[in-house]
């Protein structure tokens, strides 16, 4: 039946519903939806906002003989009445969608086991699908997670929902250009309607245009000042004019690949290819701008959104099909009154528009609106994009700095104004510092087979762990290459919490569990567990003042290295937290874990209590110095899927002799001769010329290794680097050279040393 329905419905529209969120959808008679849980554990509640005939059946469920009758939406009501950000957002959406109590009393509720693979609608309706659930406590393992909904529709979903109420909408038909005026402070959303469509963009200063001066957006000035090929949301987000003054800011970008180097396509481009008289963006701009007295040009130096250009190592600039998908967009904010022009590029002679020119749509929003800065990312290429999130601590950190960078889908502070990387570093080494580490991904692995599954999934011997203990481990693929590293918390005999860097690891674990048949569930709890690291010699004294633990839990004072405890802030009635004696600095330190609703209060409490201990906020720039000195590895620097744990310098996580059980990648690692492995070592660089990740290391004419990370060490008063070396050159004291320019013209002397550089016996972290 579904095959015939899919034939009758021309379009497939996909949606993601994050845990504790909802999706409003218009459906028509004959259309159907399919709903699934990403981890097989999230239930769903379908609310019917309106339908043509309330007395007639709304839908039929065609899979698994499911018979669902209207009942009370219990989970949605709990979410609606809950305190915190998720409940407030859900309430706001229901009010906006005009969903009343009666709707909640007559919902269709689906458990995770009976989520419908096909709901066929018998009449037109407006529905809301909710991934409702309560908040997860720090010692629980049932977080709200995603639902995926696929809508098989008669028509395309077309444009995405507006970000707010537009004050103006401009359709740019394919192979044309349109002009529009924007006031200072207003927002411009440029949307690729069907995907893979390039859109040239020009902006003029409207006031100066009236004075006869064509002051316009300038790609060269923008690249020079921003230091990027194209601005991106964050600190370096501005488009500039020829005088290097800001004209617009990039606030959101769901693609991340555009062009600021090349002219808009012109008659000459097509003529040179043998296509005479072909319509071009340049001519379309000339025609559209003529009404404003702007002289025509033979080529316009536009910003080409969605145009996929790239530079080869040899210097050649090439292009390919755009990365953009239907509904992808760029959101800009005008810094002054502007005259803008957008094109829907007519190029159909190469992949610039996926060989098929289509429309562009522009929405203008009022200056009273507010939109967060965000960049789209995808855990896997085929999934819907996700936008950059703010951690629960962001309301506090943003008051202290504007220096934020995107890291694995979250905004993280790189350094703090009034402190700076070196000051933050010294606070951690000498006193105490606090850093938001929320981007770490958390996964709950729960079920009867949890222990045996994790024994196979990670390289560490999990069976030796006790409840309350943590181990650091690698996760490898079948070739022995590292997918990720992380810490494994044993929460109970049948529940583990894996904390790592790469969000893909959760998908890999779920696929592995399905492949091996182990009876476990793998659920992501990142959105329910935000964490802050408190690191430095004074960290224990500070946390002893604010952490209350019940008698059956370990106190902060007695907490052993790589163990955790469950407690509350200040007293038995405070909000719950988990405290682990872990860190990434080489210093005595802890991490404190809480629900994001409590994150702001937790930051304030640590910050205020820490004043007498000399506390400082710490960003990722200082953290990088600390972890390099401590010889701690970082993904895509010291390891990648082509590097096994021994080559990454963490062979201790892979006890081949004392662990006789199999784990993923073991056979590949054992086939490798230990004598042939490249080895992670330290370098003392005998120069103040900076060396960088990726610089090759030479002995004579030929390279023998590569720099993986480097920094200037304030405590050692020299430049140091982590490097991977061929086994013949790993002897301590070996003189080598770091090659720069072409590797031959410039050589920087260095000497091989052991790791870690700082506190080699790791006495400070164990103190």
Number of strands: 43
| Secondary structure: helix percent | 10-25%
Largest sheet: 8 strands, mixed
Structural class: alpha+beta
On the 0 to 100 scale, the average pLDDT is 94
Give the overall shape. Answer: globular
- Approximate strand percentage: 25-35%
State the helix count: 17
* Cα distance spanning the termini: 67 Å
Q: How many whole angstroms does the radius of gyration measure?
A: 28 Å
Q: Which regions are unreliable across 5 or more consecutive residues at pLDDT < 50?
A: none
Write the layout of secondary structure elements.
Elements: H1 2-8, E1 11-17, E2 22-27, E3 32-37, E4 44-51, E5 59-61, H2 74-80, H3 85-96, H4 101-105, E6 108-110, E7 119-121, E8 125-130, E9 147-153, E10 166-172, E11 176-182, E12 187-192, E13 199-205, H5 206-210, H6 219-226, E14 238-240, E15 246-253, H7 267-272, H8 281-289, E16 303-305, E17 308-311, E18 317-320, E19 329-334, E20 338-344, E21 360-365, E22 374-377, E23 386-387, H9 394-397, E24 404-407, E25 410-413, H10 421-430, E26 432-436, E27 441-446, H11 450-457, E28 470-476, E29 482-492, E30 495-500, H12 504-516, E31 521-524, E32 530-535, H13 539-546, E33 547-548, E34 564-569, E35 576-580, E36 589-594, H14 599-610, E37 615-617, H15 620-629, H16 666-671, E38 679-685, E39 696-699, E40 702-713, E41 718-725, E42 735-740, E43 746-753, H17 763-766
Parallel strand pairs: 15-22, 26-37
Antiparallel strand pairs: 1-9, 2-8, 3-7, 3-9, 4-6, 4-8, 5-7, 10-21, 11-20, 12-19, 12-21, 13-16, 13-20, 14-15, 15-19, 17-18, 22-23, 24-25, 26-32, 27-30, 27-31, 28-29, 29-30, 32-36, 33-34, 34-35, 35-36, 38-41, 38-43, 39-40, 39-42, 40-41, 42-43
Helix pairs in contact: 10-15, 13-14
């Amino acid at each position: 039946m579904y095959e015939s329905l899919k034939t009758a419905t021309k379009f497939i529209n996909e949606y993601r519903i994050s845990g504790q969120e909802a999706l409003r959808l218009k459906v028509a008679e004959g259309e159907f939806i399919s709903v699934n849980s990403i981890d097989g554990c999230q239930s769903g509640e379908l609310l019917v906002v309106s339908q043509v005939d309330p007395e007639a059946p709304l839908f039929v469920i065609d899979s698994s003989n499911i018979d669902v009758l209207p009942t009370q939406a219990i989970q949605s009501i709990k979410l609606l009445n809950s305190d915190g950000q998720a409940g407030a957002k859900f309430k706001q959406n229901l009010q906006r969608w005009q969903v009343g109590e009666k709707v909640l009393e007559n919902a269709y509720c689906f458990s995770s086991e009976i989520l419908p693979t096909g709901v066929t609608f018998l009449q037109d309706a407006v529905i809301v699908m909710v991934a409702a659930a309560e908040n997860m406590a720090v010692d629980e393992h049932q977080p709200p997670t995603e639902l995926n909904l696929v809508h098989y529709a008669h028509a395309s979903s077309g444009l995405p929902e507006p970000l707010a109420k537009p004050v103006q909408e401009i359709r740019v038909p394919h192979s044309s250009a349109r002009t529009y005026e924007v006031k200072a402070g207003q927002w411009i959303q440029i949307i690729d309607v069907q995907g893979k469509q390039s859109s040239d963009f020009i902006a003029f200063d409207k006031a100066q245009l009236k004075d006869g001066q064509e002051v316009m957006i300038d790609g060269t000035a923008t690249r020079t000042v921003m230091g990027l090929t194209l601005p991106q949301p964050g600190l370096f987000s501005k488009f500039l004019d020829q005088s290097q003054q800001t004209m617009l800011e990039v606030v959101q970008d769901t693609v991340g690949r555009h062009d600021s180097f090349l002219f808009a396509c012109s008659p000459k481009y097509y003529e040179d290819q043998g296509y005479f008289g072909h319509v071009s963006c340049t001519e379309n701009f000339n025609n559209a701008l003529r009404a404003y007295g702007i002289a025509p040009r033979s080529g316009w130096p536009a910003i080409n959104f969605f145009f996929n250009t790239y530079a080869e190592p040899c210097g050649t600039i090439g292009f390919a099909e755009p990365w953009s998908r239907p509904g992808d967009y760029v959101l800009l904010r005008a810094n002054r009154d502007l005259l803008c022009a957008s094109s829907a590029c007519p190029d159909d002679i190469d992949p610039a528009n996926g060989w098929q020119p289509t429309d562009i749509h522009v929405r203008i929003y009022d200056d009273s609106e507010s939109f967060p800065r965000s960049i789209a990312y995808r855990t896997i290429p085929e999934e819907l994009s996700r936008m950059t999130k703010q951690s629960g601590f962001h309301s506090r950190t943003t008051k202290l700095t504007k220096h934020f960078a995107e890291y694995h889908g979250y905004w993280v502070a790189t350094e703090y104004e009034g402190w700076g990387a070196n000051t933050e570093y010294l606070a951690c080494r000498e006193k105490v510092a606090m850093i938001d580490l929320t981007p770490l991904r958390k996964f709950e692995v729960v079920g009867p087979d949890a222990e045996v599954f994790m024994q196979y999934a990670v390289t560490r011997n999990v069976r030796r762990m006790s409840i309350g203990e943590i181990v650091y481990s690698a996760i490898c693929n079948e070739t022995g290459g590292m997918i990720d590293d992380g810490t494994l918390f044993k929460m109970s005999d049948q529940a583990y919490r894996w904390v790592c860097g790469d969000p893909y690891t959760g998908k890999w674990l779920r696929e592995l569990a399905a492949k091996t048949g182990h009876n476990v569930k793998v659920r992501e709890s990142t959105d329910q567990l935000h964490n802050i690291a408190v690191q430095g010699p004074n960290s224990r004294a500070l946390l002893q003042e604010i952490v209350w633990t019940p008698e059956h839990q370990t106190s902060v004072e007695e907490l052993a290295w790589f163990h955790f405890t469950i407690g509350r802030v200040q007293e038995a009635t405070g909000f719950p937290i988990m405290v682990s004696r872990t860190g990434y600095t080489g210093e005595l330190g802890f991490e404190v874990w809480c629900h994001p609703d409590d994150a702001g209060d937790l930051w304030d409490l640590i910050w205020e209590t820490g004043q007498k201990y000399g506390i400082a906020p710490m960003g990722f720039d200082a953290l990088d110095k600390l972890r390099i000195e401590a010889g701690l590895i970082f993904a895509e620097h010291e390891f990648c899927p082509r590097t096994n744990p021994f080559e990454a310098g963490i062979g201790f996580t892979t006890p081949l002799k004392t662990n006789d059980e199999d784990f993923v990648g073991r056979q590949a690692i054992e086939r490798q001769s230990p004598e042939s492995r490249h080895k992670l070592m330290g370098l003392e660089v005998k120069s103040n010329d900076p060396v960088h990740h990726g610089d090759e290391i030479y002995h004579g004419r030929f390279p023998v290794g590569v720099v993986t990370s480097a920094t200037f060490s304030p405590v050692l008063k020299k430049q140091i680097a982590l490097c991977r070396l061929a086994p013949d050159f790993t002897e301590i004291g070996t003189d080598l050279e770091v090659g720069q320019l072409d590797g031959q013209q410039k050589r920087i002397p260095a000497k091989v040393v052991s790791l870690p550089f700082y506190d080699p016996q790791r006495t400070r972290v164990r103190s």
